[in-house]
């Protein structure tokens, strides 16, 4: 096994169990390793620290599989880690009865570069790093064994694969698309899941709890759902008895999916729902000019800042839509605002929302801080895992 030797003093993040080894921390690689091969990680003085997956093309030069230098990284290792991740979720009461959930959340489940989501008896896998790619067969076998799933789709088309020198891979690994299409019931609402061309692995599982919160807040409120995608928040708002729900998205495909979802839930009052294909930035200005006001506004935009390098531009965009949102709120109205940008911390996001309230001349308070649910855990030693943050604010 090749040995990756760190520069003096660069073993500190590993001592804190952070799983990434950046190229700037590496002194040398002794021996030969191909992308994804397991390497032994040594401190500058030769002390063994960990075993990691070698990724020669990425700035993250290696990702730690185990901090126990004596643990073997083999088929049994993946069987163990994957079983533990799946069983952990079975014990969490808030996930009981959910058909859709994240089963493996990468680094935070001790499996860097591996995402697995289940939708009923279908699992969608996403491999985003060379190490996970190398162990693909073992991973698929272990996922099938741990879940008993009947089909697996691979959705390894995330942009980050490029940084690893990996080409996109998509398709059914085994099983095939069910004839009636794929859907899940999420807290009483049936939602289609498009594993082939939907966002992420087919659905935004990370907003499950926040959609449920929306439902609990929506009664009799004129609701505005911006960046509605396939209508998750909108349908939960309808289920919660919203007076009306106006949903905006710039994607015709997303709105077509939302229409299908509306039809899948005939008990919801579709006459209270209006769907608009538009750019949120300009449409909110149109609504403002028309003198419209809402009691509940949801802002769940796409990732404006995938990394810290985009933070400044992203901050302006978040501030802009949040100020527009605040301006459109009726007295006592609620703003539910999110950022899924890894490059924006929750403190920074709160500052942006505060600036936006100020821009709009509104006095507001935080009622609740929002995050992804427990199937998207954040390992304490891996703060980068906390990408989704939100605030529920109430205005005077
Ligand atoms: N809230 C959704 C997920 C939102 S994903 C859910 O719970 O499922 C972000 C959505 O924003 C995508 O559907 C994308 O089409 C849309 N979008 C991106 N930029 C936009 C813009 N400028 N105006 C309107 N919609 C936009």
Summary, kept brief:
The chain has 396 residues and is an alpha/beta fold.
Folded structure, characterized:
The protein has 396 residues and is α/β, with parallel strands linked by helices. It folds into three domains: 3-66, PUA domain (Archaeosine Trna-guanine Transglycosylase, Chain: A, domain 4), CATH 2.30.130.10; 75-174, RNA methyltransferase domain (HRMD) like (Transcription Regulator spoIIAA, 2-Layer Sandwich), CATH 3.30.750.80; 204-395, 3-Layer(aba) Sandwich (Rossmann fold), CATH 3.40.50.150. The protein has eleven helices and 20 strands. The strands form four sheets. The protein has a seven-stranded mixed sheet with strand order 16-15-14-17-18-20-19, sandwiched between helices. A hairpin with a 5-residue loop joins strand 5 (48-54) and strand 6. Helix 2 (75-90) runs parallel beside helix 4, helix 9 (280-289) runs parallel beside helix 10 (311-327) and helix 10 (311-327) packs across helix 11 (346-360). The chain is globular and about 70 Å long. The structure holds S-adenosyl-L-homocysteine. S-adenosyl-L-homocysteine is lined by residues 204, 207, 227, 229-230, 232-233, 248-251, 254, 279-281, 300, 302.
Task: Give descriptors for this structure.
396 residues; alpha/beta; Archaeosine Trna-guanine Transglycosylase, Chain: A, domain 4; Transcription Regulator spoIIAA; Rossmann fold; 3 domains; six-stranded mixed β-sheet; 11 helices; binds S-adenosyl-L-homocysteine
């Amino acid at each position: 096994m090749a040995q990756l030797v760190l520069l003096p003093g660069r073993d500190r993040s590993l001592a804190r169990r952070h799983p990434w080894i950046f190229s700037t921390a590496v002194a040398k690689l002794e021996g030969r390793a191909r992308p994804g091969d397991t390497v032994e990680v040594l401190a500058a003085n030769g002390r063994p620290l960990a075993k990691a997956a070698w990724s020669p093309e990425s700035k993250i030069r290696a990702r730690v599989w185990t901090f126990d230098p004596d643990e073997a990284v083999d088929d049994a290792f993946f069987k163990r880690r994957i079983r533990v991740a799946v069983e952990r979720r079975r014990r969490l009461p808030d996930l009981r009865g959910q058909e859709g959930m994240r089963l493996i959340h990468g680094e935070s489940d001790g499996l860097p570069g591996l995402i697995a989501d289940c939708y009923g008896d279908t699992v969608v896998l996403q491999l985003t790093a060379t190490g996970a790619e190398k162990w693909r067969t073992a991973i698929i076998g272990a996922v099938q064994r741990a879940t008993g799933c009947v089909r697996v789709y691979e959705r390894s088309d995330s942009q980050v694969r490029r940084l690893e020198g990996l080409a996109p891979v998509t398709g059914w690994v085994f099983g095939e698309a069910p004839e009636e299409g794929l859907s899940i019931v999420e807290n009483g609402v049936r939602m289609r899941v498009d594993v082939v061309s939907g966002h992420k692995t087919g659905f935004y599982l990370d907003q499950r709890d926040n959609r449920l919160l929306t439902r609990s807040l929506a009664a009799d409120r004129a609701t505005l759902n911006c960046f509605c995608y396939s209508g998750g928040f909108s349908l939960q708002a309808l289920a919660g008895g919203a007076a009306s729900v106006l949903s905006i998205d710039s994607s015709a495909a997303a709105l077509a999916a939302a229409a299908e979802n509306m039809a899948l839930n005939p008990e919801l009052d579709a006459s209270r729902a209006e769907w608009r294909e538009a750019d949120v930035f300009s449409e909110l200005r149109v609504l403002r000019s028309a003198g419209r006001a809402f009691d509940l506004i949801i802002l769940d935009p796409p990732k404006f800042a995938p990394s810290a390098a985009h933070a400044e531009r992203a901050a302006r965009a978040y501030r802009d839509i949040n100020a527009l949102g605040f301006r459109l709120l009726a007295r006592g109205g609620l703003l539910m605002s999110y950022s899924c940008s890894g490059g924006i911390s929750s403190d920074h996001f709160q500052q942006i929302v505060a600036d936006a309230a100020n821009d709009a001349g509104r006095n507001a308070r935080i009622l609740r801080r929002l995050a992804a649910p427990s199937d998207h855990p954040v390992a304490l030693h891996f703060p980068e895992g906390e990408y989704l943050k939100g605030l529920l604010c109430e205005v005077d």
